[in-house]
Amino acid sequence: MAAPVRIGLISDTHGLLRPDVHRAFAGVSMILHAGDVCGDEILDELNLIAPTHAVFGNCDEPWNTRLVERLDLEVGGVRIHVSHGHELGRPGAAKVAAAYDADVCVYGHTHRQLIERVGERLVINPGAAGPRRFDLVPSVAVLTIHDGTADAELMTLAE
Fold it and tell me: Tens digits of per-residue pLDDT, 68-110?
């Protein structure tokens, strides 16, 4: 039996990486950023914690070669899709699950935290980790993959 794999999920940093992200992501093997990074220094800091992969958000510069349109990867037998969500208009769990063929779908854009099962799929919005907006509490999520199954938990960040 393989050890569980923990993956940090973050979105909507908008140029601000709160120091508490280091605590929240302690021990993760990888970080997936669901867009609106808004600065290479955010990726540099996240890479100090764990290897980081990031997608474009609607506020990111299109010339940034460190960002991709979407991520599709497999970890521990679990297929993971990451995109920002703006490409779907007003994304929600059902809309994201219908748009992407993956066991776990991660998106951002709305700044609203969400972990929801849609059938057999797990849909996650880690919330916004950057500047506080819309009276929402800053947060990230940690995805745990173990024996081919995935689960996630939201983690509030200190302001």
Answer: 999 999 999 999 999 999 999 999 999 999 999 999 999 999 9
**Chain length of the chain:** 159
Assigned fold of 5-156: Purple Acid Phosphatase; chain A, domain 2 (3.60.21)
Beta-carbon contacts of residue 56 (< 8 Å; ≥ 6 apart): 35, 62, 64, 67, 68, 69, 84
Tell me the per-residue pLDDT of 9-40, one tens digit each, with 9 for 90 and over: 999 999 999 999 999 999 999 999 999 999 99
Which contacts (CB < 8 Å, 24+ apart) does range 154-157 have?
154/113, 154/115, 154/126, 154/127, 155/24, 157/18, 157/20, 157/21, 157/24, 157/129
Domain boundaries, the chain: 5-156
Half-sphere exposure of 59 (CA within 13 A, CB side): 15
